[in-house]
Automatic annotation (TrEMBL):
One of the GO biological process terms: rRNA methylation
Database matches in Pfam families: Cons_hypoth95
This protein's record includes keyword Transferase: yes
Transferase recorded as keyword: yes
Naturally occurring in which organism (per UniProt): Actinomyces gaoshouyii
Name of the protein in its database record: Methyltransferase
UniProt GO molecular function: methyltransferase activity; nucleic acid binding
Coiled coil start-end: none
Amino acid sequence: MAGSAGGRRLEVPVSGTRPTSERVREALFSRLEHLGVVDGARVLDLCAGSGALGLEAASRGAIEVALVDSAKDAVTVCWRNARSLGLAGVRAVRASAAGYLAGVAAAPVDLVLIDPPYGMSAAGLGAILAPLARAEDPWLAEGSVVVVERATRSSEPDWPVGLRRFALKKYGETTVWFAEPSGADNY
């Protein structure tokens, strides 16, 4: 971890997760801070696992972070990690990412971090991305960024109408895709 929780270790669920490497996390957040989308942000960490990405955002100044995972053990670990780091504004939610996004956004978010299992199908990832692009009851604030982490061998996500990729970065076996709302119809 960097930021206010710098140097602290996180607990990881016993099984079912593949935490983002420290190298990838550091590079990702360096890019996000350069884009100005972390400090003061509202953040969704979908398929959160240990919560490492969302907790990194909170440690670097995000004001509100929802750690969302469908596995009970992962949500428990997310909650314990958030508590042990003493980060305000962090909550852990047990729900599938697509199920969580089927609801109404309390307020649009500035940053969405999606690190699904590498084996997730394109359709499964599409079910997560589609609600982010909806025009009614929008999830995304103006100027928001959506980050998708996938195995390098995976194909590019099928971006729904309303989201467009603006960058990608490869780190060994990991590719990070960056997307943004693609038009005024999203707001």
